[in-house]
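Aim 2 progress update. The chain analyzed this quarter is reproduced below.
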Amino acid sequence: MYKIAVVPGDGIGKEVMEAAINVLDGLDIDFEYEYGLAGDECLEKTGKALPDETLELVKNSDACLFGAAEESAADVIVKLRQSLKLFANLRPVKSYPGTKALFDDLDIMIVRENTEGMYITGEEEYTDEGAIARRIITRKAEERIIRYAFEYAKNNNKTQVTGVHKANVLKKTDGLFKKILYEVAEEYKNQGIETNDFYIDATSMYLITQSNKFQVIVTTNLYGDILSDEGAGLVGGLGLIPSANIGENNALFEPVHGSAPDIAGQGIANPIAMILSAKMMLDYLGEQEAATKVENAILKVLKEGKDVTGDLGGNASTMEMSEAIKNAL
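Predicted structure tokens:
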């Protein structure tokens, strides 16, 4: 039995979480769900966006499913990533049928460093002139994420890793990243994995004009955040992009989309990103057969195009689409 921490959060997070749990219940796997509070609504009720008991719940689980947070996102998801040392953020960019994907053959994994760069809580302050943020890049963290990307490539039959940076301008911070990239790459040369690198601005263009250049992208925190949202635009929107946050002892899985307060409570949110996040959780837990079943069920529903939400051209509610995927298992 797996102990799963479930933190629905705000807005559509609750709705897509219910949809994902419904699909997981269709598998022959025992899950024990324990629910925790976090987000804006939690802040209003308890005075804390991320209560200590929720942090402990996630820390002591086999994995965590997280929905979405509104304005308190930095105090919730960023704190969870840093407190639990979830150093690797995996964001797949993959084409699925029946979507608004610009290309039908995309299968890119963006591996994003999760613990430093521009997103460190407390490293930003006001000054007399305005404000300043410190961008911290360490050898330990960058070597860890780069090595993770190469291991991911090796274990998933990928033959290329691309590093993304801006070392021509940020010569010390991104220069260090690039240096470490090629140091680690030397260890994987004989394993059939090629290495290249591009500037962040060029990569943003190449994702649109030459997307087949990429298999695994590894980059720092801010760049990875931007590129994964661009990738979502290539494959039909944020409603289709899951993510994983992996550490040495813990893991958290969440859709890339936010809480979408404009449609919250209407039951029309696309649950695919949350269900695919649950699929990534299954992979992490070693339940590859179940993970494949979930993805195949999603593919079946998308190909048929009948029980899909409005953003995909259908009329199904969030739970109707969830039921269709569960039935397809």
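The chain has two domains: 1-87+248-329, 107-234. The mean pLDDT is 94. These observations will guide the mutagenesis experiments scheduled for the next reporting period.
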